Amino acid sequence: MRLNKVKERLKQVAFSALKHLPPNTAVNIIWASTLPRDLIERQRFTKALKGKGTKTEMDESFYTQFQPHGQEAEIHTNDNQLRYEAIRNHIAGAVIEVGCADGYFSRRFAREGHRTLGIDTSSHFIKLAKSKAAAQALKNIRFRNANAEDIPAKDCSFDTAFLGEILEHVERPDRVVQETARVVKPGGTIIITLPTHLMNTPDHVRTLVPKALKRMLSPVADIESLRLLDFSHYVCIAKRK
After folding, report:
1. What's the predicted TM-score (pTM) here?
2. Distance separating alpha carbons of residues 11 and 118, to the nearest angstrom
3. 198-211 pLDDT per residue, tens
4. Which helix (H) or strand (E) holds 40?
5. Domains in the chain and their CATH numbers?
6. Sheet harboring 184-195: ordered strands across?
């Protein structure tokens, strides 16, 4: 018990020190400290994929087992609130959330009066999202079980698109960015958040760095800002070309 308390105290001291370092320095230190775990988790997940099925099937099993939240529970509430405050002033008009999970952000957008569509490949999450929206009596929101590479919407259907912690999960993030841009009106806003290595989990395919995100966005959107939100998340605001 005493050893656990010592470990927890050392962790608190380490994170306190990181907060006072320049963001890039903090990210580099975090990246170095989590690389061994990152490699082990990816190897474990790759091995599981070979034996059990597709990534989508593995993800569904992972979400159902480790995030079996009921109607009243929220997922990653503190992190979500921080990200929502960072993006709320950029949300306008009709909104699509690509990779909506249990619909936390979609429901926030709908409560602000925005017509909202949330899509996700996980039927587990879509079921939760619909249940929570119904419990809050939200009428201006829909959820669909759909692939981010083939969004069920017409060209230029939305004013804003939000991709919150989604690109690290997919096999072809560049394709997801292109498909998202297709359904956003010219001049509309594309908002993307990404985790640093600190947030790596077994369902991640990769950890995307800002340079890679810029490369993906450049053909379809102009980046207005791309910054480190805290030492575990990046947030990007871009305008559809």
Report:
1. 0.76
2. 36
3. 555 666 777 788 88
4. helix 23-52
5. 1-241 (3.40.50.150)
6. 141-145, 116-120, 95-98, 158-164, 184-195, 233-240, 221-230
